[in-house]
What we know:
The chain is an alpha/beta fold. 38% of the residues lie in helices and 23% in strands. The protein has helices spanning 23-42, 45-61, 63-74, 78-98, 136-148, 162-173, 188-197, 210-220, 245-256, 277-288, 309-324, 378-386, 401-410, and strands at 3-7, 14-19, 105-108, 113-121, 125-128, 152-155, 181-183, 203-207, 226-230, 235-239, 267-273, 328-331, 335-338, 343-346, 349-352, 369-375, 390-391, 393-397, 415-418, 433-434, 437-438, 451-459. The N and C termini lie far apart (63 Å). Belongs to the aldehyde dehydrogenase family.
Amino acid sequence: MSQTVITNPATGETIDEVKNDTAAEVEACIQKAEEAYPAWSKQSAAHRAKLLKAWYERIVENKEELAVLITKENGKPLKEARGEVLYAASYIEWYAEEARRVFGKITPGAENKRLLITREGVGPVAAITPWNFPAAMITRKAAPALAAGCPIVVKPAPSTPLTAYRLAELAYEAGIPEDILQVVNGDGETIGDIFTSSPAIKKLTFTGSTPVGKLLMKKSADTVKHLSMELGGHAPLIVHEDADLELAVQQTIASKFRNAGQTCICANRIFVHESVVDSYAEKLAEEVSKLKVGYGLDEDTDIGPLINKPGFEKVQAQIEDAKAKGAKVLTGDKYEVDDEKETYFVHPTVLTNVSDEMDIMHHETFGPVAPIATFTSIDEAVQAANDTPFGLAAYFFTENYRTGHYIHEHLKYGIIGWNDGAPSAAEAPFGGMKESGLGREGGQEGIEPYLETKYLSIGL
């Protein structure tokens, strides 16, 4: 029997071993979801909402256990893991309420006709989720699916499946039928092929890299699936000359260094007006130098490890490339590496004198590195910010409302923070433009991708 060994990225110790599902077992889960769909879709919205509320409550009751589990298999600091648990639960609470607001309507038609528009769940859903938010990326997909009347089969990342299994156990304890929420583990390519080729799966939702997302889109074409894709990002952060620099520094750290920079909406390129760059960079480096690197279960840890060696090598290569091309290190550029234990820590790093020829300005870092470039006009900053195929998240800081609205209207990003480095919320639609994805998760918009629309023309 094949198994996946789950290790702690901070210590290298083995946490657990998880059975890998065979292709036949994954297909059996899909069949169970297909068979369970008719009865689940016909349950009242109030009943589904009640079960989702109970699931939410079970998660909140067990938040400390889940937070410790997330820290052990993911590496993020415990205080961040606690925040993720509550963030994940908030999606379940939100969609428990949205379940009761899937409205239809009656539209006036031609003479002697009435048009009745109704909504119903698309059918069984498959979800593929990443390692960096092992709880939130599941609930953000499962909650609207269940609320809409759709069973869901979830494949978590191979490095962080334990959180997924525990979330499912809590769902069952809350009364959600086991065939309605299932978790499968195993080879990503094999399971992805099963999901995309199965005619029983009516929708695929994926969070991960843009290349993998494009591949899944191509493979889903033959069965014409509904798709939701939250893909890569390369977020810009603009600091205008009239910004509150203390606030900008605080919120830059909130955006850039959460989960050691391993989030899709982390600020990756920082553009600062030339008149304030020295002051901003000095303040940022001073505060960043105070961040403590260490084991996530230590309460005072701010920065945990990178998830694996390839992630570490990418970050180190970007730092070295920047330095070779003239970047100046204000703080950081230190590493704690143990190849035998496979643990990789990068101290948070601030770079100045950054230019467009450096790799870090063109490729998502996924690590705790803040590269600072300068601009002279707001149009120059916006143009540089938009100069990427990605359009997931962006940030800007200004105290001038005219400047703020101008930047907002010209940035080509799905999520924008104005004087705010942490814009995510269950109430808001999360998703990107351009090659950063399709559809939205969260908010009223987040349940739409799980619904079909039909209309009935009634002759009178």
